[in-house]
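Recap quiz, item 2
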Amino acid sequence: MSDDVFEFLLRLGDNTLVLGHHLSEWCGKGPVLEEDIALANTALDLIGQTQMWLGLAGEVEGKSRTADDLAMLRDAWDFRCCLLVEQPNGDFGQTIMRQYLFDQWHLLALTALAQNPNNQIAAIAAKAAKEVTYHCERSAELIVGLGDGTPESHARMQSALDLLYPYIGELFETDATDSAAHFDPASLRSAYDAGLAATMAEATLTLPDSRFAHKGGRTGARHSEHLGHMLTEMQWLQRAYPGATW
Amino acid sequence: MTDQQEWPLWEIFIRGQHGASHRHVGSLHAPDAEMAIKHARDVYTRRKEGVSIWAVPSAQIAASSPSKKGPMYDPAEDKTYRHPTFFDIPKEVGPM
């Protein structure tokens, strides 16, 4: 039971950790100063949420591992993030599409989790939902602005959607780990699809026909090759100088 | 962004937690008004600086020119009757 809850908390914390790290890679490279700041702020929000989720995961596990230990000293096969957030930044359009596809799910998931019988999970979810409401508004607005923008921005957003759409199916797979935490991702799908369809219609983007879904991230069965590369960069300092602080 | 126009400039005004009026805090670029407010939120209010944001297109602000400072403001100086400094103002009144 507590093993399942530990796994479940890793799923939430690893999602925000990996996505937050990817967003932080834009720092200093944003297309315009205002977007650079906005992406960095979003990254900080997500890393903040990671501290709460992985901090609670460490408590639940009871082996006195801290959030930092879990973030910096696990290898790829121990991560439980979805494949969507592992996908590399690509161009700005790809980053924003990944962000929107995740934000929309994230907001629904946190709203549901805010009612979780586990008080600590509910409290973290309620706190995070405030930040994610803003993330979701922002990324949806950018999707519309860029999708319904110039021919070039439209084409880039469409190819980003085609590339990333096969990664959302995994977000709605309910398994024993979710059930143990009283969470049912499958129940979020219809609200998600409705929101997605509305945003994409306004952005003049076409949703792919196929519902084929890549899977394996949330269970740790099979991560994409991108995760290992990201962790190498993210963890090297802590690995090279164990216990380093500043 | 080579052959395309830059985003327009916006002036950002923020009402602080305790202040009564919006104050100018700076400017930023954004494609439209909604995005200007979002950018302002990210750039200027991340430390809880405000409770309300105004974004005004910079192009819509008519401003006096610093080079015309002389003609605009100087003449007031030698008209002492414009400065009611001859009265004793009770402390309770405060600055006028």
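The helical segments of chain B are 33-44, 69-73.
The two ends of chain B are 50 Å apart (CA to CA).
End of item.
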